[in-house]
Amino acid sequence: MRLLFFFVGVFLSFWTCSAQVSPTQLLADIDQLEELIETKHIRPYRLVSKKKLASVIQEAKDYIGAKEACDETCYVALLKIVAALRDGHSVVRTSSREKLFGFMPLTVTWFKEGLYVTRVPDSRTDLLGSRLEAINDVPIDEVLDKIRTVLPHGNDSRFKKFAYAYLRMPGLLYGLGITNDADRASFTLSKNNKTVNAVFENMTDEAYEQTTFVHFDDLAEKIPIYRKNYDDYYWFRYDADLKIFYCNYKRVGTMEKERVSQFANRMWGQVDSLEVDKFVFDIRNNGGGQFARSMAFIQGILDRPKINAPGKLFIISGYDTFSAALDLLRKLEVKSNATIIGEPPGDYAASSGDPKSYTLENTGIEVQLSSVFHPSVFPNDMRPKIPMDQFIEISWEEYSKGEDAAYHYIVNYNTQIPEKASSDKYTDYLGRYHYDEDRHLILESKNGHLQLEISESLTTPIYTGTDGSLTTEVKGLSVQLGNGVTVLRLPDGTAQSFHKTEDEKAAIEYLYEGNIEKAGKLYRDIKSNNPKSRTLRDGAFSNHALFAYFKKRSEDRTKASEIAKGILKLGIELNEGDAPFCEFALRFY
User: Fold this and answer.
1) Are 138 and 161 within one domain?
2) Do 120 and 206 fall into the same domain?
3) Does residue 164 sit in the same domain as residue 194?
């Protein structure tokens, strides 16, 4: 049974909402939800204006207030409020959704050509590989437009990932006006030029437990490498003929049979002992987890110049790449020399996360709201996605044949490295520039070539384009030098100028080298000038401790641990003791 292809919680028996909660009670819960969004969400108005959200909330209140009794349409109005945040981490929890709206045993998956059935009860295996055309005679495009209003998503990738989970809730389809029955729906499916209407009904816990499910891959004659070992969080394979080392990373967590640290040590030992022409890091099906557990992979890549090079390091992303896996990709985008291919991950390049759960008092509905904001290295980064060096969308045709266009692209990739810019031409521009409160932009010469660094955040060679422009490893990031300033043209299309500084080092550099006294003085100056600076956040210091530890631990693990503890204690001090992330992390060093 393939349970990892989609999330299945403990199913709760379907119950009629109107029998338990009145419109007055639900309105009180919406008032509570509104207050939670305002006070608990880290940045509620980043992607929706306060005026727009207020309008959605008022619309829900007006609708519910006019009802004599609650039904599924009332709960659809509540879902629309959460979805308006456009935050994939801020959601009505799965268990609450299924309690409200039920569950039908049909799984569809998003492909280039549309939505195809990939998992069914064993009595309906004839439907595997069918394309979904309509639900209750409503064309699927119209259905999806309605689903978009209730499915929290920051970009199309997140919607692609979770559309299936909303399409199989009969009460939700009813509440959206797609069907006329809250317990069942008719799916119009096409396969081999034939069309069939298949009716699915709400399934109870007991029925689910007694049903055997079949996934498309269970019957497939051939499946590609990335669809193997599906229950393992991580595994690798080496192709001696092609000299390709492939690591599949499906969950930012650890397994009982081999802890992530043990696996990473074993894998890097193999990489170091083999002749590797290309290293493939496949995170296309990684929906996240605990970010700290990914550091053994991030730092392992950065520590190995034999694989961390253009044309040698490849990362495969997908629309399922999310949360901690997005954080991982965010770091490798700017710190490694990776070629990133596939489909963009499921959130903005800078995004909210680390959700906390809250229970609405009258309905018992559980909502999750993001508690931490994860910026990218670029100021005010509003990119809705991390761009791919090569966009490769999974098609049903290749999937059904057991092919993998992304891996095929890597196998046939011919290294085309542009010419590195000579630092001799730009000696007047070498040096440090003030980037932000605790980081510098550094232009330096490395082996006679120009290199760009943003303190402890980004490192990239600078290349000379065919038109004389200066480009970098980061897609969309280029450099202009002139009139004593450095101008970065940022990946979101904006530009920003930076001026030289006489400061020897930035605060973050002192932090990472373990000079906590010097770093502390500079951070206290920042706090004095800007008490609300993002550089002072509890979460920022807990991350700094993690990165500094992994960067230093190969040299001296004891020293690395002392540096991490010093960083955490400084974070606690700067946040005046209100630093739960730092306090929690302190126990690990």
Assistant:
1) yes
2) yes
3) yes
pLDDT in tens, 51-97: 999 999 999 999 999 999 999 999 999 999 999 999 999 999 999 99
Kindly state whether residues 67 and 184 are assigned to the same domain.
yes
DSSP-derived secondary structure for 261-308:
HHHHHHHHHHHHHS--SEEEEE-TT---B-GGGGHHHHHHHHT-TTTS
Quick check: is 12 in a domain?
no
Six-digit token string for 348: 């903005």
Report the chain's terminal Cα–Cα distance, integer Å. 40
Domain assignment present for 354: no
Phi and psi at 408, nearest 5°, equal -60, -40
Give the integer Cα–Cα distance in Å for 379 and 469.
22
Confidence (pLDDT) at 249: 98
**Amino acid residing at 466:** T
Whether residue 468 has pLDDT greater than 90: no
Which of 537, 534, 505 shows the shortest CA–CA distance to 521? Answer: 505
- Same domain (yes/no): 276, 161: no
What b-and-e string marks burial along 382-408, b requiring 16 or more CB atoms within 10 Å of the CB? ebbbbebeeebbbebebbbeeebbbbe
pLDDT value at residue 445: 97
Helices (H), 436-515: 507-513
Three-class secondary structure assignment of 396-409: HHHHHCCCCHHHHH
How far apart are the C-alpha atoms of 67 and 417, rounded to whole Å? 64
Whole-number pLDDT of residue 466: 78
Mapped onto helix, strand or coil, the DSSP state of residue 227 is: helix
Overall number of domains in the chain: 4
- Residue 39 CB-half CA count within 13 A: 7
- In sequence order, the β-bridge partners of residue 351 are 374
Q: Are 464 and 546 in a shared domain?
A: no
CB-count exposure of residue 145 (10 Å: 0-12, 13-18, 19+) = exposed
How does residue 118 score in pLDDT terms, banded at 50, 70 and 90?
very high
> Phi then psi for 220, rounded to 5 degrees?
-70, 145
Count CA within 13 A, CB hemisphere, residue 18. Answer: 12
* DSSP-assigned letter for residue 418: P
CATH code, 273: 3.90.226.10
Q: What span, in angstroms and rounded, lies between the C-alpha atoms of 284 and 311?
A: 19
CA atoms within 13 A on the CB side of 570: 31
pTM of the entire structure? Answer: 0.93
With vertex at residue 237, the alpha carbon angle to CA 323 and CA 309, rounded to the nearest 5 degrees, is 65
Range of the domain at 263: 225-343+388-411
**d(Cα 481, Cα 441) in Å, to the nearest integer?**
13
Tokens representing 159? 């919607």
pLDDT score recorded for residue 12: 36
pLDDT tens figures, 486-521? 999 999 999 999 999 998 999 999 999 999 999 999
Do 29 and 176 reside in the same domain of the chain? yes
Please write the tens of the pLDDT for every residue from 540-569.
999 999 999 999 999 999 999 999 999 999
Indicate the DSSP class of residue 220.
Answer: -
d(CA 328, CA 456): 15
Tens digits of residue pLDDT in 197-220: 999 999 998 999 999 999 999 999
